[in-house]
Design a protein that fits this description.
Blueprint: E1 2-7, E2 13-20, E3 35-40, E4 45-50, H1 56-73, E5 78-83, H2 89-94, E6 101-102, E7 108-109, E8 112-118, E9 124-127, E10 140-145, E11 150-155, H3 161-177, E12 179-181, E13 184-186, E14 192-197, H4 205-217, E15 222-226, E16 229-232, H5 240-267, E17 270-272, H6 273-280, H7 284-298, E18 301-303, E19 306-308, H8 314-333, E20 347-349, E21 356-358
Parallel strand pairs: 4-5, 11-14
Antiparallel strand pairs: 1-2, 1-3, 3-4, 6-7, 8-9, 8-10, 8-16, 10-11, 12-13, 15-16, 17-19, 18-19, 20-21
């Protein structure tokens, strides 16, 4: 949940909102003369929001008070200080809880929904997400969902006028306030209330069209979130933007490693192969498999477990290594090919030349002598 406190000139905190679910506040309505402390218990973040027109003293007291709030909340909370008008996406997300999120499995979850049966007394009972209940002649059903941003009312054939009126009043409450289940809130200020009378569907093309739209929602994959609330998965494939960001991050990491190696080679005539593998975050055994080909191609020497660059073409070597990393990226993404430092193969000295080599290798890559292991 979220708690918002205003920092007063006296240094005290004035709680202005507590335990709300995000959409109770319009981000644009925050007073730029205020300095606010916003405690987000879900993400373990405490925000210090400094309005553009807030006083220097307020900002100073806010910086002091936010430390006290963190001490009470727990040291596992982080502090983020931001200026009004420069709010990052993570902060904006607090006030727009219905935006999509990406699960660990890479699925894009959008749009919460919940279904209710309405009793004769006008009481709403949450029920499992089930299309078949819409066609039960004895039931009256309310569905609130964020995909079309609508509240649906489905009247079974055998439901009287009194029950229908009670149901519509309940639907109007949901339309205005949404529905809260635990820490999850389904909608607020829906676009419309749509009524479907199952006894008239065959006579009304518009009502038949609405029923088709509603029943199609039940064909989409969904995941139960809390209570009977479900999140409808509009897309099952990994979000393309997320995938592109991950690829860009991997490429940036590779470039940083290559650049680090470039600087080392520039100021040193030799480098341990184990050290090179660590710099490149790659498996030492894989580097041993490649290093002799590169040494031959670019004019290096291998002495024991060292690469001697001497007069070799180091610039060409770095460029070739950069291209090789690009070719490895897809394999790495599939858990094949290049392996991270955390997966290093055990090594030991060669019993003949002393070079550091992978355990149980049949031939020393340094002295090319055949080896036997007990």
């Amino acid at each position: 949940m979220i708690k918002i406190s205003r920092v007063l000139d006296t240094g005290k905190l004035e709680v202005i909102l507590e335990d709300f679910l995000g959409d109770a506040v319009d981000l644009s309505s925050l007073d730029q003369k205020d300095c606010l402390i916003i405690q987000d218990d879900h993400n373990k973040v405490i925000w210090l929001w400094k309005g553009r027109a807030s006083a220097v003293r307020q900002k100073f007291m806010g910086a002091k008070k936010v430390q006290e709030v963190r001490a009470r909340a727990g040291l596992n909370y982080t502090i983020q200080a931001i200026d009004g008008g420069e709010e990052p996406p993570a902060f904006v997300q607090l006030f727009h809880p219905r935006t999509s999120s990406i699960t660990a499995a890479g699925r894009v979850l959008r749009n919460l929904a919940i279904q209710f049966d309405v009793s004769e007394e006008g009481i709403c009972l949450p029920v499992p997400w089930n299309r078949e209940r819409l066609f039960n002649a004895d039931l009256t059903t309310i569905i609130i969902e964020e995909h079309t941003n609508s509240v649906w009312v489905v009247y079974g054939i055998y439901n009287g006028l009194v029950k229908r009126r009670k149901t519509l009043r309940l639907a109007e409450i949901f339309w205005e306030q949404g529905y809260v289940a635990g820490k999850v809130k389904v909608g607020r200020k829906f676009a419309s209330i749509k009524e479907i009378d199952m006894g008239r569907v065959g006579k009304s093309p518009d009502m038949k069209k609405d029923l088709d739209i509603l029943t199609n929602l039940y064909q989409l994959p969904y995941e139960k979130i809390e209570g009977e609330v479900v999140a409808i998965e509009i897309e099952q494939k990994t979000d393309k933007n997320h995938e592109e960001r991950e690829r860009a991050k991997r490429e940036a990491d590779e470039k940083a490693r290559i650049e680090k190696l470039r600087k080392i080679v520039k100021v040193s005539n030799s480098l341990e192969i184990a050290r090179m593998a660590a710099v490149l975050s790659m498996d030492e055994k894989l580097l041993w498999d490649k290093i002799f080909d590169w040494a031959d191609q670019f004019g290096f020497r291998i002495e024991k477990d060292m690469v001697i660059f001497a007069q070799g073409n180091t610039a060409g070597f770095i460029d070739a290594l950069d291209k090789q990393f690009s070719a490895w990226q897809d394999l790495e993404h599939e858990k094949e090919g290049k392996i991270s430092v955390s997966s290093k193969v055990d090594t030991c000295p060669c019993p003949i030349c002393g070079a550091n080599i992978p355990v149980y290798t049949k031939e020393c890559p340094a002295c090319h002598e055949a080896l036997k292991w007990d």
